[in-house]
Each structure stands twice: as C-alpha cells, then as structure tokens.
Specification:
The protein has 304 residues and is α+β, with helices and mostly antiparallel strands. Helix content is 28%, strand content 24%. The protein has 7 helices and 19 strands. The strands form 6 sheets. The chain has a 5-stranded antiparallel β-sheet. Helix 1 runs antiparallel to helix 2 (45-57) and helix 3 runs antiparallel to helix 5 (198-215). It is globular, with a radius of gyration of 20 Å. The model has no long low-confidence stretch (mean pLDDT 95).
Length: 304
C-alpha cells in the first residue's frame, strides 16, 4: 500500500490526474480486478514525465494498464501506481508518409483512420483489441504478420521520465514481446503504410473482422488469448483436446467458442480465472507434455 506521504506527493504533482483506491474491474476487458493504490492518467508528456520520475523517487511500483486487454488484475488489487495513457490520442500522417499514433489510440480508431485515408499495411490488426501502447509492447498480431513487421519506430519514456525515439531495429522483438527496456513506457509509435484503393483496404479489414467474429467470443467479457501458441501448435486446440471447452470455475468459463479464451459469465473473480488457467496448464501437460505459457499479463496481489 502507498504510504500517506507518497499519496500526498502524487496528489500535489498530478492533481486531478491521479485517484486513489480505484477499483480496476471497470478498466479491464474481463471486468475483473481489485483496487489500484493509485490510478494515474497524465494529460500530456510533461505530466507523464513527472509521474514516472516521482514513482522512481518514491520507489513506487508502476504498472501500465492501457485499455485493460490482455491483463488479469488479481482480486486484492495492485500495489503502487497504475498508469493509463488513454488521454494520449494524437493520430496523424507523419512527414515520411507513415502513420504516427500515440499510445492511447485504440486499434479500432487506427483501423478507421487507415480505411478513411486509403492506407494499407495495418489491416492485420483489425479487431485486435486494446491500444497502440499495448499493441507495440506485446508485439500483437496474427500468424501471418505482427507489429514488428509494420513498426518504423517508437517513442519511449524511461523510468526517469526522459522521452526518446527508438528505431524498430533497436528493439529485440520476439513472439508476443517487443523486448522494451526495463521500465520503459510506450508514448507513441510510427507505422509503415502505403497508399492504396480505399475499397481494397476496407475489404481486407472486413475480412479480418469477419474471421474474428466467427472464431472468437466477442460478445462476452474476456482478456483475449490466455496462452501463447507453442511452436508448431495452437494453445486452443490443445485445451480443446484436453476436453476443457466449457469448463467452469465460479463465474469464469473456458469459452465453448474458442478454448484459448476464458470469459466472465458474470460475477467471476480473478481467483476463478487463475484456477482455470492452472487447470488448463495441468491437463494439457498431462495429455501432450506441452507446458503452456500464459500470454495474459497477471498483475496485482491476491485478496486477503
């Protein structure tokens, strides 16, 4: 828990941009999560710099939440400061003809922008939830294409609040990770695009959206893919082969639509979801010898 003196320092530095003891369930796609000791939503880069520098000065843990996708917040909440960059929403064409998007721009907004301006190259991201910051951090994508294939560069803020540009070549991308430096926060990113017929871009976007709608449980709260796909295999197929489609613990369920999704059927707790994650890992390992690795980011503390 944050000491009273640290709370006073955060309030003095950030004013209305910081709140305390805020339940995080409404900020996560699973609609699950205990309270954040402090929830900071800086208005601009200067305020972001102050937040990061103060967290370092006060030795406060920092978690970036983004739009709450691909994240499971434990029932006891999160120590320290939870950072949201939803006010960072600038989106424009860059001088080099690329697309420059701040971290809080949603994938849906980025997709609409590309369709409107007839810009091809990012259609693969259509329907991937969340924001540009999270998209880059986890190297989001589909089997055929990932963020690393479209990224030109990224603007990062380090733990001291210093902002600097990093070219794509300097990041050690791997499956579902950009390999960002420890403590770095994505502020903005630039993506390579090419001009194309608007109807063609829209058609490709619609194809990706239709595929997702037909194979994923999009009408119920989930955190997206729970496990990374093992090399040469699909996590969902392994979980289905283990007979776990539709398995439930409390209000959480392994989706009957796609076994690599855990959904909140109503009233689910993080403990329910964690129990299903452990069940899936155990049963898959017993049946196939494969050790599933979580893709979902699990943060926070268990309930007392």
């Amino acid at each position: 828990m944050i000491a009273p003196t640290a709370r006073e320092a955060l309030a003095a530095a950030l004013g209305a941009s910081v709140q305390f003891d805020v339940p995080l369930a409404r900020f996560t796609s699973l609609r699950i999560g205990g309270p954040a000791d402090a929830l900071a939503a800086p208005a601009d880069r200067a305020e972001l710099a102050r937040t990061l520098a103060l967290c370092r000065e006060l030795a406060l843990p920092l978690q970036v939440l983004g739009n709450g996708f691909n994240t499971l917040v434990r029932d006891g909440g999160v120590d320290g400061v939870v950072l949201r960059l939803q006010r960072f929403r600038d989106l424009r064409r860059g001088e080099a003809g690329d697309v420059v998007a701040e971290a809080g721009v949603t994938h849906a907004t980025l997709t609409r922008f590309c369709v409107l301006h007839g810009l091809a190259g990012l259609e693969f991201g259509a329907g991937i939830p969340g924001t540009v910051g999270g998209w880059v951090t986890m190297n989001a994508g589909v089997p055929e294409r990932e963020v690393k294939d479209a990224l030109r560069g990224v603007v990062l803020a380090d733990g001291a609040g210093r902002v600097h540009c990093v070219p794509r070549s300097a990041l050690p991308f791997r499956y579902r990770s950009a390999g960002l430096p420890e403590g770095a926060v994505v502020v903005a990113a630039s993506f390579a695009v090419r001009e194309a017929d608007r109807a063609d871009v829209e058609s490709e976007v619609e194809r990706h959206l239709a595929k997702r709608a037909g194979t994923q449980p999009l009408d119920i709260p989930s955190c997206g893919s729970v496990f990374k796909n093992p090399p040469g295999e699909f996590a969902g197929r392994l979980i289905e082969q283990a007979g776990l489609k539709g398995a439930r613990v409390g209000g959480a369920e392994i989706s009957p639509v796609h076994a690599n999704f855990i959904v909140n059927r109503g009233g689910a707790s993080a403990a329910d979801v964690l129990a299903l994650i452990e069940l899936a890992r155990t049963r898959v390992h017993e049946g196939s010898g494969v050790a599933l690795e979580p893709e979902v980011r699990i943060v926070g503390r268990d309930a007392a």
